Model the fold of this input.
Amino acid sequence: MASTIWKGHITFGLISLPVRLVAAARSETVSFNQLHKPDSSRIKQVLYCIAEDKPVPRSELVKGYEYEDGKYVVIEDEDIKKIQPKTAKVMEIVEFCKTGEVDAVYLESSFYLHPEQAGEKAYTVLFQALQQTGHVGIAKVTMHNREHVVILRPAKNGLMLHTMYYADEVRATEEFRTDKSLVKDIEVTMATQLIEALAAPFEPEKYSDTYRDTLKTMIDAKIQGKEVVAAPAAEEMAPVIDIMQALKSSLAALKKPPATEVAEAAPAVEAKPKRRRAAG
Done:
């Protein structure tokens, strides 16, 4: 069972319901350890005090904030607990907005929002109301020493919570723009046809990290003392000059059946027996 990230109450209006958060996803990767090259022994990072010129144990560590160059104020865990806002225990929904109004660039991490037994009915009421209205809830919650703005949205089986970046954390660049005057309507029409031809239902299980799989295969080969086989080099892609021609060729390639299908669809032709010459 997944571990609980946060536990508390959701409030909206005069309704309150107990909930808990668990992580909805996590990245998977192949991790490596740092080794000493001459003897392949594991390297250990040591916490070191510069003033006393010696290693120190973790038990002697405290948090410090540098307010001037080389000057620190010590912050104790009790100091942080004293100033925690009410959102450390209560997640208050402050407003609702249409789902389509939330730009995905603001979404950070995803969590499953589970109701506790005492809050299942109110949880279901909120879930169905959000589904029917096409809205998401915007709330605040404090966890991991940070107050987050979060989005509550109805998923297939329950409520999802997404932490969000604040507006001042999202990089806004004037260079990020689109000049629509560069293209013709016919080019957009052809691109639309190409998109529709490649359209398919979203099935995330179809995709996998092929690089991670290849990395594991390479590691297994090294363990067995086998030679590592180099992957084929990627072909260099030339910039497209004629957009219309590229779109036409792409559509034509999609409409043309593969050679194997053509061979299977072609009717079998019986070989005619050769006529024997009459004996002279």
Observations:
- The chain has six helices and 13 strands.
- Residues 178-201+245-253 form one domain.
